[in-house]
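Record type: monomer structure entry
Structure origin: computed from sequence
Chain ID: A
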Amino acid sequence: MMLGFIAVQQHDHTGISSITLCGNTPEEARKRGCRFESHNFAWTPPECYDEELNQKWDSKSWGYSRDPEGNDLIPSSEVLQGDLEWAYVTLNQHMSHCVLVWQKYQRAVMFGRPADNWTTSFAHTHHCGHLMVQWDLNHSEYNSILYTKYVSCGYEWKRPDPRMQQLMTGPMDGGLTGDGGNHADIHGAREIEEGHESEHHL
């Protein structure tokens, strides 16, 4: 289904530096006007918060659990407060998050908006693509764990980053490098591939 037309907010991006940061605690994030993205477990500056996509995500019945068996489910109302340090989610939810992040990035580019450093991370994009072709994994297991993070927001994605060339040409096994691994899989969080173990990260 096509998304409807939306009002495009114009941003002054004469400077490339980050617009704002969210601190290191939920209290700091709230004081700075940041909002919590439940799909990403990320406190996000308002300039990088995509209202339409987040409403679409939060309208669905996603599952969050305190244990990897999915026995101790967390109410959505508690998740949306943004005070949890971590939660388990299913692989299906993990992959749905990947799709939403890709949509968020493209919308930022199309509408000339700033974007947060997690959404624009090539390492995260590579990881999500790698995960999408692991056909033999159980999508209904609570085999991914999210940790709350505090992202930055700006137009850095418009500036070439020499580090990306090294990242794109170096060895990558689906694990996040660079922008941090605040999400991981369990089993102890490993994917077995021809005797090689590598972590998944959201």
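Annotation 1: Confidence is low (pLDDT under 50) at residues 1-14, 173-182, 184-201.
Annotation 2: Helices lie at 26-31, 51-58, 76-81, 91-111, 122-132, 162-169.
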